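I hope you will forgive my troubling you with a question about protein structure. You will find the record immediately after this paragraph.
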Amino acid sequence: MNKTRCKWCNTNNLKYVEYHDKEWGQSKHDDQKILELLILEMFQAGLSWEIILNKRDSFSKAFDHYDILKIINYKENKISKLLNNKNIIRNKRKIEAAINNAKIFLSIQKEWNSFANYIWHFTNNQVIYEIDKSKSHLSDLISKELKNKGMKFVGSTIVYSFLQAIGIIYSHEKKCFMYKNQKYK
């Protein structure tokens, strides 16, 4: 039986379908998963999400399965190794930003007891329902905050996609089988 999915989901790509059906828009509070999605969204800047999703397993291996204590200690030899890894996006600025952002992520974790506490506080732990947007007042605000803290590649559009990925912004279309008719902020 064919299920109706959000119009952006390429149903010919099983990784995309699985991401749409099992992960996108689901509330996430695990910091390691949140860090993974922040890094992946950052690498997506200027590219399609499908490209990143197809390389997701390679990114996980290359970035030590998003072990933040390893990432914050990457030195030139690891950066060089990442730049030579043909299975990921080999952009030096994005690689350096991932390391930088992990350091800031860790400092936010320490301040808020978890990054999840920090990111979810912007909506008082409420989910927002929106469709057909690529940025909003919320993503503008969080983008500005993250940039002020020193993060890179966290423009409003990237932050908006990140918020959708971790379920703060719920964007399954009403015709999609994943749509849940509940009260949203």
In short: The mean pLDDT is 95. Residues 17 and 164 are 16 Å apart (CA to CA).
